[in-house]
Write a structure and sequence with these properties.
Layout lengths: L3 E7 L3 E8 L4 E8 L6 H21 L6 E6 L3 E2 L4 E3 L8 E4 H9 L3 E5 H12 L8 E4 L7 E5 L2 E3 L20 E2 L2 E2 L2 H5 L1 H11 L11 H9 L3 H25 L3 E4 L2 H5 L1 H14 L2 H5 L2 E4 L6 H6 L1 H6 L4
Parallel strand pairs: 1-4, 4-8, 9-14, 14-15
Antiparallel strand pairs: 1-2, 2-3, 5-6, 6-7, 9-10, 10-11, 12-13
Helix pairs in contact: 5-7, 6-7, 7-9
């Protein structure tokens, strides 16, 4: 009998509610704009309304969910499911999300950092299958990571392992994760938009341009967009070199923007990484886009529960 899971992929730009199973198959899906500027309560109310509709439809098709699985950005306490002010979800301050969902839905709830969930998804079903030392990078609205070390998910002492977006790579640069010149500032979606506005203020204004637009322009050969993208790739590569020298992984999988931009972003990032990291570490590691592509978030949303069940 299938173990049916209701997955929640809660991001700063969009939130998805999916119905899937332990094998990573997704049967139903609905998406809505998160609009975090509203604060927690209105977003939670809309989330629960979508959960109710999707869950009822799935149950009518013989796929009643037995548990809830959540992927969401940190910082958070994973076991307790308490969310502590993620930079992409302003107003989500010390939110006991797990307890609120369990009370509302009367089902067991499992919560995981979205970086960890992405790492598990690509390890179970994607580009990192069979590997023992894996780094996953989100590279979406925010910039976080997940670590599989020696064949096990590594969360750290207080669930903060993988918060690589907080690393400072330069004294000056876009602000991300509350820090000037952070990796998130240079390489997250919001940071790339800020970088474009800083480098070309006569063309783009902050708040009026998006990383998606910059990516589309770069793919079309736009010179200004390519200048921005080359700077993003340079800092991406420098951050990757730090991870290689510290953790010596066999594969680094990057989601979202790396999937959309492919070698336009990854080739120069690998070149910078090779200049900065130990040669043996570079030779031992593949840097690849997420194999699950645009479906990564949906599959990752199921992985807190899949991990709690002991894997697929």
């Amino acid at each position: 009998m299938e173990t049916i899971i209701l997955g929640l992929d809660i991001g700063g730009t969009k939130t998805a509610v999916v119905v899937g199973d332990r094998a990573g198959r997704v049967y139903e899906r609905v998406q809505f704009a998160t609009r975090p500027e509203r604060g927690f309560e209105p977003t939670f109310a809309e989330l629960c309304a979508h959960i109710g509709r999707v869950g009822e439809h799935a149950a009518g098709a013989g796929r009643a969910a037995r548990m809830i699985s959540v992927a969401i950005g940190g910082p958070l306490e994973i076991e307790r499911g308490v969310i502590h002010s993620p930079p992409n979800l302003p107003g989500w301050d010390d939110v006991p999300l797990k307890a609120l969902l369990e009370k509302r839905l009367n089902l067991p709830v499992y919560v995981e950092h979205d970086g960890n969930a992405g790492a598990l998804a690509e390890w179970y079903f994607g580009a990192a299958r069979g590997a023992r030392n894996v780094i996953f990078l989100t590279m979406g609205t925010g910039f976080g990571g997940g670590l599989i070390l020696n064949g096990q998910l590594y969360r750290g002492t207080c669930d903060l392992a993988g918060e690589v977006g907080h690393l400072r790579l330069a004294e000056a640069g876009p602000v991300g994760f509350g820090k000037t010149g952070s990796w998130e500032g240079f390489c997250a979606g919001a940071g790339i938009a800020r970088l474009a506005a800083e480098r070309f203020p006569g063309r783009w204004r902050e708040g009026e341009v998006t990383a998606r637009q910059i990516a589309e322009l770069a793919r079309s050969g736009d010179g200004d967009a390519l200048v921005v993208l080359r700077e993003v790739a340079r800092y991406l590569g420098r951050g990757l070199a730090i991870l290689l020298d510290v953790l010596n992984p066999e594969v680094i999988v990057i989601g979202s923007l790396a999937v959309r931009l492919g070698e336009l972003l990854l080739a120069p990032a690998r070149e910078e990484m090779a200049r900065e990291a130990l040669p043996a570490a570079v030779a031992a590691c593949r840097v690849v886009p997420a194999a699950l592509g645009e479906h990564l978030g949906d599959v990752a949303s199921l992985c807190a529960a899949i991990q709690a069940l002991g894997g697929p």
